[in-house]
Write a structure and sequence with these properties.
Elements: E1 3-5, E2 13-16, E3 19-22, H1 26-37, E4 42-46, H2 54-57, E5 88-89, H3 113-116, H4 119-126, H5 135-138, E6 150-157, H6 162-165, H7 167-172, E7 176-180, E8 183-189, E9 196-202, E10 208-212, E11 215-218, H8 224-231, E12 260-264, E13 276-277, E14 286-293, H9 295-301, E15 306-312, H10 318-324, E16 341-347, E17 356-363, E18 369-374, H11 379-398, E19 402-404, H12 413-416, E20 450-452, H13 467-485
Parallel strand pairs: 1-7, 2-10, 3-4, 3-11, 4-7, 11-20
Antiparallel strand pairs: 5-6, 6-14, 8-9, 9-10, 12-16, 12-19, 13-14, 14-15, 15-16, 17-18
Helix pairs in contact: 1-13, 4-13
Length: about 475
Amino acid sequence: MTIVAAGLLEPDTVVRAPVCVLGGGAVGIALVRELAARGVDSLLIESGGLEYDDDVQELYAGRADGYFDLRATRLRYLGGTTNHYAGQSRPLEPVDFEAHSWRGGVAWPIDRSELTAHLPAAVRTLGLADDRWDTEDWFPELVEPRDPSLQVKVFQALARPLGTAYRAELDASEHITVLLGANATQLVLAEGNEAIDHVELSTLEGLPLRAEAEAVVVATGGIESPRLLLASNRQIPEGVGNSSDMVGRYFADHPSVGPLRVVPGPREPTLPRAAVTNEDLELDVSLVATLAITEDAQRERGVTGFHAFVLPTGPPSDEDLAALGVEQLLDIGGPSASEAQSVVFGLEQVPNAESRVTLDDERDALGHPRARLDWRLTDEDEEHFAALIEQVAIELAVTGIGRMHAEPFEGSWRDQVMGQHHHMGTLRMSTSPRDGVVNEDLRFHDVRNLYAAGPAVFPTYGHVNPTLNAVALAIRLAHHLEREVG
């Protein structure tokens, strides 16, 4: 088996494997590699090729008022968004799996141990250093924050394009076939509408193909996956897997404002101000030390998680300081350094059913509806963010690191918030079809051989980047599929 260009096949060719995975990003690659390691044949279908292509990327175009241009949020070729991501990684925390009122009482339908069991394999897949996350393992001399409700959390970061890292392995595998340049255009249901019969595929040039499998996994991202399911409406008007009108709902990203400028204080920082590379590691992995709220404080205060890290940004101009309204801080705290700093935040979003992906009236080059994204934040999100920014500002001030401009919201808060390209929640995992799209095995509640993988299945989001956790879940899914079709 090998890497095949779809355009070289004959029209109406049928490709078959026990498992068909749609999407050749981090999650899709991790899934087929784990299946291969367990002796299960699979077919990995990727819309793009081995390199970036403008025409393929244009298929991501859609409507997203107040959000990024959707063409810029994902890459559509083998390796997916790992081709330009930073790879910042950390596991979800125990509190992220619990039901809390500030998340609408939503909990994960699996225990955290079912994710952590596969973290070592996920760490190896992404090329990270080690499945160790305690701060003292990496920064034993680090001073803890003064505020007892804050702690330092460490992220590992490694930009490793998986399409390049695993290309030779995928091409040589006896159990994996990679089909490039093939776009899934319709999930076709078998008689009775309880299972997928086949997947209709097309090249950009219009060459029709077909994929058949015992199990189909949708792993095309938190926007493209619901778009495909909703657009597969030839047999059922509301789309495939959408009997409860949950497909595309609960879209989430990690809201961020800033970076916010800090005027340095008189003391040396008590936490690393930026990513640092540990020279003792065999891999060139950067370690990022961040300020974060403790889990106990989250539970006590009823607030979502967050992290914040300080970056050196070079000396600011007088105009920059004046524009930020912090010129008066130059005489407060007696800064001894000329180098300015910035604080970058990442916040967990509150789940919101009205934040969603739907279909737009405009159609793509293949004649199929484009995605329409309505990313909605809540008053709770704003309240959490404002309180946490103030908390970090106080910590930086009392420790002498510097004074932060802590009032960034002038006018509409939502007009100033940006996402971090982390698309989560649109095919959320749940015990009941009333509350989500897939069950604890990532199988669709109402389609017995259809599965989803990726951050789209997260019922709650945590404050950490989603890729590592999504890869761990994909490896877990491979074990389940081995039992189902192996």
